[in-house]
């Protein structure tokens, strides 16, 4: 009896072990699998390449106007830039405009603020004829010889333009810095026929014909005194220059 009982017990234990193993396997298949180790997660939201900033300054600072003759003087076209200083004058500016219109030419008038104030309406006549206007300061002060406050006033409060011609051509780093700060570029000249000294009509014409080269800026005057010689010289020299193939656009001012 004891051997039979022992065999029965052993058989029961074996069955219990087998059933337990089957239960463990069944539970193992029902339980979700866990990652073996933590991994680095990538955010579902992409990182912006630039962070927006409230009230951010402009991406590019304010810069002065580009070279007012560059775009007009490209290619094979021969051009000369006529410029007139010290106006507008109620007598001579309309006469200059008449000669320019007669020959199909345009120019840039570097005007004084004091003359604009004294002769309202002439600025509009200059612009209406297809010309442009540059600033020549307010009172024709020599900007290299006046106090800083006066220099800035002459530059910042003069005629509205993107071009500035310092009186007498007098310039230095401080003058140029103020011109740039006012949003303008300094414009001087290449040819000075000294019409302001009234050397005679023929002398003005010959000076221009001798020295003018393609893309040059020519200095003349429509104010500051009697400009009869300038007007007569302009009427003579324009057809001669046109015969050489030149045209006369106004500068971008």
UniProtKB/TrEMBL annotation:
Residues 58-67 have a biased composition (Pro residues). One of its GO terms (biological process) is carbohydrate metabolic process. Gene3D superfamilies: Glycoside hydrolase/deacetylase. Residues 34-57 have a biased composition (Low complexity). Residues 32-69 are annotated as: Disordered. The keyword Hydrolase applies. This is Polysaccharide deacetylase family protein. The lineage of its organism: Bacteria, Bacillati, Actinomycetota, Actinomycetes, Propionibacteriales.
